[in-house]
Design brief:
Chain lengths: ~425, ~260, ~280, ~350
């Protein structure tokens, strides 16, 4: 046993500027890192349990409520999984509308995170609102971009948070052409603004910290990944989504962070999110995003987690450009929602939430009721990676000033834009508050 | 209220969507932020002030033993406590456990349920401490949130309309989808606030703003049953995001009883 | 299809008025003396006792408030207001010199001429004295037209007696003023009890030639009406002023209906028999 | 006069050329609603409606008539008395608050397909908004320029009872032009000089005797199909003296107080005025919104609402519509269109309620 004098703990009681509530706990003995925990005090809401027995039509509405920041990710993953279970083939029109909806969420989420949640770390502010005093243009631009995302979600989904228009088989109602066209001018402005934002992000000061990550995301032969693709790792392996659970496991571990995901036999941690996507899909970014990446000299593969903020900027550009393309060529589809018959079966799907890969699997019976649900959100996949990163990063930043150390740690955590509410359904409550 | 009221934003079991609504008020955010002192808002700022607060916005429902102490503590430190969203005002979707076997629920999700310290019920904040104002919705309407904050800043009592979704639906010019398409819709018994978006998108309202004042849920259900909607369809319709709100809860329990009697 | 209409004068638009003076009355009640910014409007503005204005605080709302001062004054117009909700509380926060909006006057008035040669009894409860005050001034000014003037005024407690400083003057000028309170304070020597009791005890020399004007809480008016009828005052000589939610004051919003009438245009002052069939119906 | 079917488009074009925004029936959300139209092709050709208490279904006809249905969920009040109207604005200046009338430049409307009960309903609202002591400027601006092309019903729904209210189905006045649809065209009647003027610009021919008879027969068909009835004899006095009838409790068990009946009713005019203001407190607008006597807060006074239960609110609606309206505006507030019956989500039927209120002692 080490004597208490040698033991130090660094605690972030409440992580801020992240979604949901969690903390950080580090125990050091001398300079040796004994323990790093991303602690979660989000109470569990037991979604997988309460979904059982519900009509499958309700699943996109209910799973949306797992997270108020990325409800579309849950809706998209659940409808795709259920469509696989029911054997529904969606049309190209519906597929495009779904990408459009996802673009809305990416824009909303990335604009918020980049401008209001993460940039303050690099510039030394407590919040985006505080930062607005000295960086009014950047913050206002961020708010405007975020608003565009919301407008898109409202036009197509009915509202920005927990859209109501997503259905198994398509949409309850396809938008009218005039509703769609009305957004074009704002998005034309926004595309340029997203480029400006990305250029600005590239000028921030990034810690010199790289790691040999195993990054995982979807890859689709001819599009930047959103709604479908193979699961691919930067190590070179790839899997069909149907084999996801064979490779990626969730474990319920005894300390504060339970049910973390890990990969393969070795139970290794892995990294999901925008850096993974850019690293594996750079050449499928939209032309302006690709051009901007070249112009700012963004090198891929990029192994510096702090630079994820630039990856988000580039994805923002991509989402704008793809949105514009869909808006400009939109014609109301002949069928907004594909009819189907109930049948017993199971289906799974993986899509790309703003924060990374999200996986759903459902089993349904022939009365259209859910009998089993499994949901793996991005943050649970990143959680172990975050702890691993911290273990590696801490020696670089350890000083006597524990508050400063804690701030550095938080900044690293925020690189993942963690979404703690999402992860709650499998995270444990009790926090080990001291060594 | 003092020149710049101190506002705290707190969270219990929830999805974060309601507090995010404040950040989603992009046009109003900076103006509103200029009128208040954001003293505690983890999602938005690292600045933490332990209070006391003039206004507490509370999101989420009570689902763990620790929550109970925490909400009491917040109540003590706050002058005016507003609950925001269906989780806080009615227990949220997680209140479905209130009708289920909680241990079985835990086992279904967790490999090691013994690590989990959670209550068998999810209950609204008002079951635990006095609440000064409720803002309904799953999620809340951001304009209503801004309006409530601005009212309080200006020393006014906040007010939100208490009528049914139908009124807004008809103001918008929608056609009633129950009457014209036979789609069950909770609009007639649901409080307005969303702008009647579901019927605008050709689907029935699922009651995410909770029961309207003096709503006659019994009559609506009886009529829908008579029209051929099954009790097994109505129960889940009532038991979702506001399922534990008294008016919806009583009705769904009656329906369950009715259908078991029939069997 | 063309319909011929009168030229558009917009009855929805308020004039700007300015607070000239604020007289605190009792707790939560103050009288606001208002003047019009536009002198032409001031010159044209006339009202009858019992009528009301819509007072508008932009950003907060608009409320009906009776005129409470002498109708012959043409410099300022007074409203005596109790702070009960959003608009009235906000009004209570305004200072001399602040502006607000005003539309009016609206509604019916106390038909004083119909009481010519009568014993006139005024029954007021609480703030109900405010809309009666312009009538009292008028009655006192023309006192010789009436056989007698009596004011029966019920207040919750001695410290909520409205216009207390004016009461002695009214007595001096020939009005019999009788007060009662629901709850007495130790130093209160007057009547205690509901105002109906004062009416029950009031000697009426000729009930047939007595006119009664009342304003106060609806229950009070119900009982006073009953008592007055029981004392032999004819229905057509009993007048009362009513209140309901009001959004427009011009008969277009539907809120202020009471039975078949609109309070904003058929009232607020009614002859008792206009309302008699409806007064005892719950929730009309 | 006779207007060929193919020439109806010319009527629409003429109106558009004269600067009218033409509003007519069109299909949306599984019902026939009134919306902006530019072409005959937007009319619900070949569609009809089947209506019953609490039920409306759009169905295919076996011909391609353009006006082969009755009234739907919308009424023209949506255009003359819009659901939202900004009445006035207030600005805080160095000179204090300055109020002025809100800008309001509504289009000139031409209504195509106005039915007899709807003409009567417009007449009822004219009395409310134009013929009282105060004129409502917003209504007046829309109403005074409106051009009305009426259409005589040639069929009736199960919910129609205009014959009881003596408002239809024949259009007798209140229109500029009135059409009766025939297989190949329309019998056109002129109601006003403006109608006459427009008609003169259309390629009409004189109408044959046979066509006239056919038109009359079709109109008679509508009369014959009307099955619903409301006994209006002494109704005002009856209702106002039966304010404590047990039937009010009974209907309150069913009524949802959802406001649908008042929203679809072409004569209901209740509204509330709300403040819409900027965050800085410098600018504010008064916005009038459709409201309903079924709402609890509608009768709110400090201390609480006056009509505290659904019973008193349903009673307010029915007694106002059928009784007090007569005192207030000189006619019944009901024109017998049946909308409140069809669009009540639980199918409450006022004619049935009236019949029940006639039963028993008060
Ligand atoms: C003809 C008439 C004359 C009146 N004269 C006076 C007077 O001289 N002095 C006085 O203090 N009060 C008077 N009142 C009552 C006064 O209008 C209400 O107290 C006031 O509307 C409350 O508004 P608020 O916003 O402060 O209250 P809240 O309780 O916040 O009310 C909200 C809204 O409800 C409506 N409302 C609430 N109470 C009433 C009410 N009693 N009558 C009508 N509408 C109401 C108003 O639209 C008000 O804005 C009169 C009412 C009427 C109808
Ligand atoms: S219509 Fe109903 S379910 Fe839909 S958003 Fe509104 S309140 Fe929620
Ligand atoms: S009360 Fe009913 S039938 Fe009468 S006009 Fe109104 S909606 Fe039509
Ligand atoms: S009568 Fe029908 S439509 Fe009218 S409020 Fe009652 S339930 Fe709604």
């Amino acid at each position: 046993m080490t004597s208490p004098q040698n033991t130090r703990t660094i605690k972030v009681e409440a992580l801020t500027r992240v979604e949901g509530e969690g903390g950080l706990f580090v125990r050091l003995v001398g300079d040796r890192i004994e323990d790093v925990q991303l602690t979660i005090f989000e109470p569990p809401r037991l979604f997988e349990a309460l979904l059982r027995g519900r009509k499958l039509e309700e699943v996109p509405d209910i799973t949306a409520r797992i997270c108020g920041i990325c409800p579309v990710a849950y809706q998209m993953s659940s409808v795709h999984a259920l469509e696989m279970a029911l054997g529904i083939e969606i049309t190209e029109d519906i597929r495009r509308l779904r990408r459009l909806l996802y673009c809305g969420e990416w824009i909303e989420s990335h604009a918020l995170h980049v401008h209001l949640l993460h940039a303050p770390d690099f510039l030394g502010y407590d919040s985006g609102i505080d930062m607005a005093k000295d960086f009014p243009n950047e913050v206002n631009r961020g708010l405007r971009l975020k608003k565009h995302g919301n407008q898109l979600l409202e036009m197509l989904g009915g509202r920005a948070i927990h859209p109501i228009n997503v259905a198994v088989g398509g949409f309850y109602r396809a938008p009218r052409r005039d509703e769609v066209a009305a957004l074009i001018p704002d998005f034309e402005w926004g595309l340029q603004a997203a480029v400006d934002t990305t250029r600005w992000l590239a000028t921030l000061d990034f810690p010199d910290f790289t790691r040999a990550y195993d990054m995982v995301c979807l890859v689709h032969p001819d599009e930047y990944p959103m709604n479908e693709g193979r699961v691919v790792s930067t190590t070179g392996s790839s899997w069909d989504v149907r084999d996801y659970e064979q490779e990626f496991h969730e474990d319920h571990v005894a300390h504060s962070t339970a049910l973390q995901s890990s990969r393969g036999e070795r139970q290794a941690c892995y990294h999901v999110g925008p850096l993974a996507r850019i690293n594996l899909n750079r050449d499928r970014l939209s032309p302006t995003a690709r051009r901007t990446a070249d112009e700012i000299g963004f090198e891929t593969p990029c192994w510096n987690p702090f630079r994820a903020i630039i990856a988000r900027g580039l994805e923002l550009i991509h989402a704008y450009e793809e949105t514009l393309d869909i808006l400009r060529t939109y014609r109301p589809p002949a069928i907004a929602r594909i009819k189907y018959e109930y049948r017993a079966g199971q289906g799974c799907a993986a899509t790309e939430a703003p924060r990374g890969l999200i996986y759903h699997r459902y089993e349904v019976d022939d009365a259209g009721l859910v009998t089993f649900a499994k949901i793996v959100p991005p943050t649970s996949q990143n959680q172990r990676q975050i702890e691993d990163d911290l273990r590696d990063y801490l020696p670089h930043i350890l000083t006597e000033d524990e508050a400063a150390t804690a701030r550095h740690c938080e900044k690293l955590v925020r690189c993942y834009d963690p979404c703690i509410s999402c992860s709650t359904h499998f995270l444990k409550l009790t926090v080990q508050r001291d060594g | 209220m003092s020149a710049k009221p101190k506002v705290g934003v707190f969270k219990f079991a929830s999805c974060d969507g309601c507090q995010l609504s404040l950040l989603c008020a992009e046009d109003e955010l900076l103006t509103v932020a200029g009128k208040i002192d954001i003293a505690y808002f983890l999602e938005a700022t690292s600045h933490i002030d332990e209070g006391p607060y003039d206004i507490a916005l509370v999101e989420g429902s009570i689902t763990t033993p620790a929550d109970i102490g925490h909400i009491r503590d917040i109540r003590k430190r706050s002058k005016y406590l507003i609950t925001i969203g269906a989780c806080a005002t009615a227990g949220g979707i997680q209140a479905l456990r209130n009708w289920a076997d909680h241990d079985e629920f835990l086992r279904a999700v967790y490999a090691r349920p013994e690590y989990i310290d959670s209550l068998a019920t999810s209950t609204p904040i008002a079951d635990h401490v006095p609440v000064d104002f409720e803002l309904r919705g799953c999620p809340i309407n951001r304009f209503q949130l801004v309006e409530v904050i601005v009212s309080l800043v200006n020393g006014r009592k906040p007010k939100t309309p208490s009528h049914s979704v139908c009124l807004d639906c008809k103001r918008r010019g929608n056609v009633c989808i129950t009457v014209a398409q036979g789609v069950p819709c909770l609009g007639p018994v649901t409080q307005s606030g969303c702008g009647a978006i579901c019927p605008t998108f050709d689907r029935g309202c699922y009651g995410c703003f909770g029961p309207a004042k003096q709503c006659n849920t019994g009559s609506l259900c009886q009529h829908l049953l008579a029209q051929g909607t099954l009790a097994t369809e109505l129960v889940p319709l009532l038991r979702n995001f506001n399922g534990y709100a008294p008016e919806f809860r009583q009705q769904s329990e009656q329906l369950v009883q009715l259908s078991t009697e029939v069997l | 299809m063309n319909v011929t209409c009168s030229p558009i004068i917009n009855p929805w638009v308020c004039h700007t008025v300015r607070i000239q003076e604020i007289t605190p009355e009792v707790a939560d009640v103050a009288t606001y003396h208002l003047s019009f910014d536009d002198s032409a409007i001031a010159a044209a503005y006339r009202f009858q006792p019992g009528q009301f204005n819509m007072l508008y605080l932009p950003g907060v709302g608009e409320v009906p408030i009776s005129l409470s001062a002498d109708p012959s004054s043409s410099a300022t117009w007074a409203h005596t207001v109790r702070a009960v909700g959003n608009v009235t509380h906000q009004l209570a926060r305004l200072r001399v010199g602040d502006t607000l909006g005003l539309r009016g006057p609206f509604g019916s008035s106390w038909p004083l001429s119909m009481a010519d040669g009568h014993d006139v009894v005024i029954v007021a409860g609480g703030l109900g004295l405010a809309p009666l005050r312009p009538a009292i001034y008028e009655l006192l000014r023309q006192a010789d037209r009436f056989r007698s003037l009596t004011l029966l005024y019920g207040s919750r407690s001695p410290d909520t007696i409205l216009f207390e400083h004016e009461l002695p003057e009214w007595s001096q000028r020939g009005m019999s003023v009788q007060l009662t309170v629901d709850r007495a304070s130790p130093d209160w020597a007057g009547h205690v009890g509901v105002v109906t009791l004062l009416l029950d005890r009031l000697p009426l020399s000729d009930p047939q030639r007595t006119s009664l004007f009342m304003c106060g809480p609806e229950v009070m008016m119900r009982f006073v009406g009953k008592s007055a009828l029981a004392r032999g005052i004819p229905e057509q000589h009993i007048w009362m002023s009513m209140e309901r939610n009001m959004q427009c004051a011009i008969g277009l919003c539907g809120h202020c209906q009471l039975g078949p009438t609109f309070i904003c245009k058929d009232g607020p002052v009614y002859r008792h028999n206009q309302l008699a069939p409806f007064l005892n119906v719950e929730g009309l | 006069m006779f207007l060929a079917k193919a020439d109806l488009q010319i009527l629409i074009d003429r109106l558009a050329n004269q600067g009218f925004e033409v509003i007519g029936p069109t299909v949306s959300q599984a019902a026939i609603v009134y919306d902006r139209i530019q072409s005959v092709s937007e009319l619900p050709q070949g569609w009809t409606d089947r209506q019953a208490p609490g039920e409306y279904r759009l169905e295919r006809r076996n011909d391609d008539e353009l006006f082969g249905y009755v009234v739907g969920p919308h009424s023209w009040k949506r255009y003359l008395f819009p659901p939202l109207t900004t009445l006035s604005t207030a600005d805080l200046t160095s000179n204090g608050w300055q109020m002025r009338a809100a800008d309001d430049n509504p289009p000139k409307y031409a209504f195509l397909g106005v039915r007899a009960c709807e003409l009567a309903a417009i007449r009822v609202q004219d009395r409310v908004f134009l013929e009282g002591a105060y004129v409502d400027p917003a209504y007046q601006r829309r109403r005074q320029n409106a051009f009305i092309v009426a259409v005589n019903c040639t069929q009736a729904a199960s919910t129609c009872f205009c014959t009881s209210m003596e408002t239809g189905p024949r259009c007798r006045s209140g229109f500029d032009l009135a059409l009766t649809e025939l297989p190949d065209g329309f019998e056109v009647e002129v109601g006003t000089p403006a109608g006459e003027e427009l008609l003169s610009q259309l390629p009409t021919t004189s109408i044959a005797e046979k066509q006239l008879n056919d038109a009359e027969q079709r109109r008679q068909r509508a009369v014959d199909q009307i099955s619903r009835h409301m006994d209006t004899d002494g109704l005002r006095d009856l209702l106002l003296t039966r304010l404590n009838h047990p039937r009010w409790d009974e209907v309150a068990q069913r009524c949802l107080a959802c406001t649908n009946c008042t929203m679809v009713c072409p004569t209901c005019f209740c509204s509330s005025v709300e403040e819409v203001s900027d965050l800085e407190g410098q600018h504010s607008e008064r916005e009038r919104r459709w409201d309903s006597c079924f709402n609890l807060d509608f009768s709110y006074v400090s201390g609480g609402p006056v009509r505290r239960d659904i019973r008193s609110r349903y009673r307010q609606w029915l007694t106002h519509k059928l009784a007090s309206w007569i005192d207030q505006f000189g006619s019944s507030g009901c024109v017998g269109c049946g909308r409140c019956i069809t669009w009540c989500p639980v199918g409450i039927d006022l004619t049935e309620e009236v019949a029940a209120l006639r039963e028993g002692t008060p």
